[in-house]
Amino acid sequence: MRLAPLAVLVLLLTLPVLALLGAWLPLGADGAQAGAILREMAATVLPEYLWTTLWLGLAVAVGAAVVGTACAAAVTLFDFRGRRAMEWLLLLPLAMPAYVTAYAYTDFLQFSGPLQVWMRAAFGLEGRLLPEVRSLGGAVWVFIFSLYPYVYLLARTALGERAAHLMEAARLLGASPARRIRSVALPLARPAVAAGVALVLMETLADFGVASYFGIQTFTTGIYKAWLSMDDRLAAAQLATFLLALVVVLLQLELRAQRRMRFATGGVGRAGSAEAQPTRLAGGHCALAWLVCLLPMAMGFVAPVLFMLRPLAADWSVLPWTRFLEWAGNSVRLGAITAVLAVAIAVALAFAVRRRKDAATRAAVQLVGLGYAVPGAVIVVGLLLPVGWLQAAAPEWGLPALITATAVGIVWAYLVRFCAVALQSVQSGYARIPASLDDSSRMLGVGSWGLLARVHWPLLRRSTAAAALLVFVDVMKELPATMVLRPFNSDTLAVVAYQLARDERLGEAALPSLALVAVGLVPVILLSRTLRASSR
Q: Phi first, then psi: what are they for 277, rounded to 5°?
């Protein structure tokens, strides 16, 4: 790929971040107002946004680290009846968007929910019997059991690659099981746990559905309030910049943890030898292992699904069946368009890195690869800022209407956020293609596009199919960007589920929510099959 098209492509995919940084430049009237707006927010809402976000992140990080590490240790270091089933069942919460889990728990546990109604009728009690679900504590609960699989996956990989051998060596040296876990397994898993916690925190910071529905004042909800309610784009840009700065810090921590994890696991054989088998559990210890594994899976997947199935079983007539196909069609259409474009861009970028080994090309592609870490709220503000500037400078062009009134804007936002997902999958496919094939093709006179079409593409089909599937599912579940940028009269399943739940029509919200869960199960099943095959 030539440098000019690559530069244009990278510019389009990094424009939201550049626009946010440009909003801080002291240019024109906006530049003069920026300092005053920042001082006003610092005296009013900014401290609350900051402390709420930090406390939420800290609680979720600790909870997800404990739950994810405990589950990973249970299925990796010990052997008990049903362990193989637990290994993939613990991945099921990945199929549940956090905001769907929040709707399910609210519907079942709130004051007028079936549980408290039954408790008051059965025991003759009055008033509220359970803590308020829509609270900071409720959000922490939802995020922990929705996001712990990130920690579980990385910790399980780290422990499976090395811990069994060293645990066996510690056993031969006379160390007790508790000491082996404390002194060997947990230190080995620490870099992986840190990387998983960083991913959990990035997902928590990027969330809008749970925070907005529970009424929690985080940076994400503040961004939407500043833009949509107060019509203050500079305040929204400044809040988005603060959120982006937090994400950058977390991303750096995650990258450092990943490097430490690669160092800790490098050069170690597989942990499946006869001399390094997991410890066999029986009796009470087996029951404890079952409890450790079943509780997170039940809280993060089984219970929310059952809570949402209750209104479906109670009265099918109240469900919005007539509109469901329309919402599903909009979601599928946007997901398919974005998936195709994201895969095409990812193949082009990966091919550019393959053909050109210079630092500028690698840096440009790495910059695009960071898009997944940028929250949807930040992308929305970063896209709408230049649209507003363009509208003020040249209203006769009509380009802003193309962005805000058609699918162009929302697909653009999706590409900024999810091209990184496709790029990672395509690059992993390229890593399995020997460079000697390129050399042989050049010796036979095959040009660049012939090399891509006739040599690389047939070998990348599985990787590109996986990339398209992942992007499609992520688009189906994306809420913040879809809410603001979707075209008129084109609601998606995610938006409708949020709107119905916000209007206290939780029974009707169950149908689109369960559809999102069903779609999310597809990559989870593929992931579990991949992990099972790699462990053999």
A: -95, 150
What is the rounded average pLDDT of the residues 204-232?
86
What global pTM score does this model have? 0.86
Q: pLDDT digits over 454-481, tens only?
A: 888 888 888 888 889 889 998 999 988 8
Could you tell me the two tokens for 37?
Answer: 């707006």
d(CA 241, CA 142): 26
Task: Give the model confidence (pLDDT) of 486-495 as tens digits.
Answer: 887 788 999 9
* Buried/exposed 473-490: b ≥16 CB within 10 Å, e otherwise: bbbbbbbbbbbbbbeeeb
DSSP notation for 221-258: HHHHIIIIIS--HHHHHHHHHHHHHHHHHHHHHHHHHH
Mean pLDDT (the chain, rounded): 82
298 token code pair:
């039940």
Instruction: Using alpha carbons, select from 333, 355, 477 the residue that is nearest to residue 418.
Output: 477
Residues 6+ apart with CB under 8 A from 199: 147, 150, 254
What is the rounded distance in angstroms from the CA atom of residue 16 to the CA atom of residue 414?
12
The 3 state secondary structure assigned to 124-151 is CCCCCCCCCCCCHHHHHHHHHHHHHHHH
Nearest to 510 by CA among 332, 330, 316: 316
